Amino acid sequence: MIVIESAALEDGGKGIRFPLPALGEFATGFVVRFNQLPYAYVNQCAHVSVELDWNEGDFFTAQGDYLICATHGAHYRPDNGFCVLGPCKGKSLKSIEVIEQNQKIMINIASISK
Ligand code: FES
C-alpha cells in the first residue's frame, strides 16, 4: 500500500509517481486528482510500453481535461483511463485501486500483477 497526503495532489495538477515492483524493476504507477477525486494507473501507454509523463509528474494536457502520452499524444479520460484519441483509441490504461480517507490517499499496489 502506498500512502500519500491528500494535500499533495492538486486537482488537474501534477501527478505523483510511485514504483510498481510487481511489474518490473523500473515500472511505475501514478496518481492524479481530477474533479476532486484521486485516480491511479500503471504508467504505461496502451499503445507502446512507454511511460506517459513528458516531464516527471506531468500527465495532463494543457487544458487539464485529459491525460496525455508524451510519445505519440494518446489522450485518456482521467476518470477511467479510456483512450479517446490517438493510436490506442478504444483501449485503456490499467487502473489501480485507490481510496481517500482522513486526508490520506491509499493506493493498493497489491491489486496490480503482471
Ligand atoms: S506510445 Fe503512447 S501514444 Fe504511442
TrEMBL record:
Keywords: 2Fe-2S, Iron, Iron-sulfur, Metal-binding. The keyword tRNA-binding does not apply. It holds the Pfam family Rieske. It comes from the Bacteria. InterPro entries: Rieske_2Fe-2S, Rieske_2Fe-2S_sf. Residues 4-107 form the Rieske domain. GO terms for molecular function: 2 iron, 2 sulfur cluster binding; metal ion binding. PANTHER family: PTHR40261, RIESKE DOMAIN-CONTAINING PROTEIN. This is (2Fe-2S)-binding protein.
